[in-house]
Design brief:
The protein has 17 helices and no strands. By secondary structure, the chain is mainly α.
């Protein structure tokens, strides 16, 4: 049974406040666990854990297939039509079922080619379970209906319970697999409960093969965007693990965790604005343009302040968050601090300006070029300069992407009356 069409979206400010409230709790949990795990696992164990977690996240991006963008837009455009929502849900879940085969194949390749996973296959197994849980999350539905607070709260609660269990279970550097097992359990809870909520509101439809193929075809542009984006974000730890010992992976991964936490602080505001601008783009272009400009100033300004604070406080931040033995992470953190303002500005230009107008191909081409630049530079620099080589590669790629997106916005949108 279902309860009928989705309820009315919450006010924009209410969505933002609710997301930031649960996000703040989530950051506190993440901060506490990194602080604990970096010390207990030490650089080698922490590097192995970071490699497995990054592999899980990268594979989950394949399974998510960009539906958090494409399906969100579909739901936002038809949120008052329960039949259309049911078809969207069936097509998305059917498509994810097909993608599981690709994920399994890539996991098998990783098991055969990566030395760390050949020595520790259990880490890859738990990472794969976490991949499946993360990939099937229905967050796209709640984002499209502008009711993200409840699923976000469930996610934070599940991660908090897992974090408490980590403090009890993890006692030695070889206990990193327990972290992965607990995180996989948390991901299963934070995906399963929202799925039950979704089907209380939307009629169940059995996924059909043709429907799943159609969803894969329609979401291809967003998937290429997300996959290309991962080439210079989540994939970096995996690439580094191909060339350097897990200790160097730990130095880079520890600093990257701090940077990703800073970027995640900006994510709720962007997630709040995206469905509203998508909804307004065809109904009131002038209002959509004004909201996009506000987002650029606000998110870009916050990114600049955060990046500067991280660069100035890098030695203290590494000492407090990662602990002794991570001195090599200080220059890594200073270099990666540049990503905060660069990534904040580029994500606003893409999600709040170009995506609502259907210009996914333009953004995807830019992101793909930047991702290829990152991989190419990483292959050249990481074997020689280890973690610092990866820093130079990703900063160069993000700088290229921002400049290219600015050029695209000016060329394509300046003559128009809306973004």
């Amino acid at each position: 049974m279902h309860e009928g069409p989705a309820r009315a979206p919450a006010p924009l400010v209410e969505n933002a406040v609710a997301l930031y409230a649960v996000d703040l709790v989530g950051h506190a949990v993440s901060f506490a666990t990194v602080l604990f795990l970096a010390r207990v696992l030490r650089p080698d164990g922490f590097g192995l854990l970071a490699l497995a977690q990054s592999s899980a996240l990268w594979l989950s991006i394949l399974l998510e297939y960009g539906f958090n963008l494409s399906a969100t837009r579909e739901v936002a455009s038809h949120r008052d039509d329960p039949a259309r929502l049911a078809e969207t849900a069936a097509s998305v879940l059917g498509a994810k079922g097909l993608l599981v085969l690709c994920v399994a194949g890539l996991a098998a390749i990783a098991a055969a080619t990566m030395p760390a996973f050949r020595r520790h296959p259990d880490y890859l197994g738990w990472a794969l379970l976490q991949t499946l849980a993360l990939g099937f999350s229905p967050f796209w539905y709640f984002q499209g209906t502008e009711r993200m607070a409840r699923p976000a709260a469930i996610d934070v609660a599940a991660r908090a319970v897992a974090a408490v269990a980590m403090f009890v279970a993890v006692r030695a550097p070889e206990d990193g697999w327990k972290v992965l097992a607990l995180q996989a359990a948390a991901a299963l809870a934070s995906t399963g409960i929202p799925l039950l909520w979704l089907y209380r509101e939307v009629p169940w439809r059995r996924p059909r093969l043709a429907q799943a193929r159609s969803a894969l075809q329609s979401g291809w542009g967003m998937f290429v965007f997300r996959g290309a984006h991962s080439l210079y974000t989540t994939m970096n730890v995996v690439i580094l693990g191909l060339f350097v010992p897990t200790r160097s992976v730990g130095y880079y991964g520890g600093a990257e965790r701090i940077i990703r936490a800073a970027l995640n602080m900006l994510a709720p505001l962007s997630q709040t604005l995206y469905p509203r601008i998508s909804h307004l783009a065809t109904r009131d272009p002038r209002e959509a343009g004004g909201l996009a400009r506000v987002g650029l100033r606000l998110i870009g300004g916050l990114g600049l302040l955060l990046g500067a604070a991280i660069a100035l406080g890098a030695p203290l931040g590494v000492r407090i968050i990662l602990g002794p033995g991570y001195d090599a992470s200080v220059p890594v953190l200073r270099g990666l601090a540049l990503l905060v303002p660069l990534s904040a500005a580029s994500s606003v230009l893409a999600m709040q300006w170009l995506f609502p107008l259907g210009l996914e191909r333009t953004v995807t081409a830019v992101i793909l070029a930047g991702g290829m630049l990152n991989v190419g530079l990483a292959v050249l620099l990481a074997p020689r300069f280890a973690q610092l080589g990866m820093v130079w590669a990703v900063v160069a790629a993000e700088s290229f992407i921002l400049l290219a997106l600015v050029w695209c916005v000016r060329r394509r949108l300046a003559p128009r009356s809306h973004p």
